[in-house]
Amino acid sequence: MRKTHQRRVIIGFLAAPVLLYTVFVASPYVQAFYIALTDWRGLSAEIGLIGLGNFTELFGDPVFWQALRNNLLLLVTLPIVTIGVGLFLAFMLNAAGGPRSGEIRGVRGAKFYRVVYFFPYVLSIAIIGVLWKNIYNPINGLLNGALRAVGLEEVQPSWLGDERLAFWAVLAVLVWNGIGFYVVLFTAGIKAIPASLLEAAVLDGASRTQVFFRITIPLIWENIRTAAVYLGIAALDAFAVVQIMTGGGPNDSTQVGSFYLYQNAFSYGRFGYASAMGVVLFVVTLALSAFTLRATRKERIEF
């Protein structure tokens, strides 16, 4: 009787969330697979089945392949740079200050730096896009103004207007925006390491570099795996920053799959084609997430 009552309570609490998730999340995913097989224009009541026609056209679309190449390049660079910088900053803020009064501490002013590093993460992505678009402005932007101030008047790049620089300028913004979250994530992992381990290593003559690579990283590997998955998903998105800062240009040099999907659906009225693109991106994201988790799997270290 008691178990039956508990089961009813659990079902009662889960029913509404599961229903909402099914209607607003799972159902659109399923519908996308069907719409991908049609020529639906979005506003028309008529839907014609065209089989794999959208996929055939998609795999021959040079803009889609350019967008996918950019996503894959982000997939490699964004996690490496963000995790690398995040690990370094988290270690400096929590364990690089050396032992004082028998404790391992971060560098002086660590609390202030934590606030500074995390601040960009709390800003709206729209604000970040507009802010950096103005910073990159080649005429009156802060970046080129700083170059002029130090006597580099001849070095005035068109950051978002140059095909060679635009992608890397967008990447820098993505790293700047997300670094605070990953500093907090890695800080939580470092704080969970018993201080006695770090202190014993220091007393045994281990350098900061050895403590970082041989103790800290192995013991927070689960945090690093989590960050790699999050950043992999972010790399396959990057929609908002690209839309606000570059619109996919110049000459599709910053085009990404999510924004090209949006353009086809809401600018060109090709919802069937956009759905086919969404299905491909869904499969790619799922496969890469599974691969990342499998490739980074290690035996858990207990402490």
UniProtKB/TrEMBL annotation:
Query: Which membrane topology term applies here?
Result: Multi-pass membrane protein
Where is the ABC transmembrane type-1 domain positioned along the sequence? 68-292
Please indicate if the UniProt record lists Repressor as a keyword.
no
Q: Name one GO biological process term.
A: transmembrane transport
PANTHER family according to UniProt: ABC TRANSPORTER PERMEASE PROTEIN, DIACETYLCHITOBIOSE UPTAKE SYSTEM PERMEASE PROTEIN NGCF
Annotated family = Belongs to the binding-protein-dependent transport system permease family.
Full protein name: ABC transporter permease
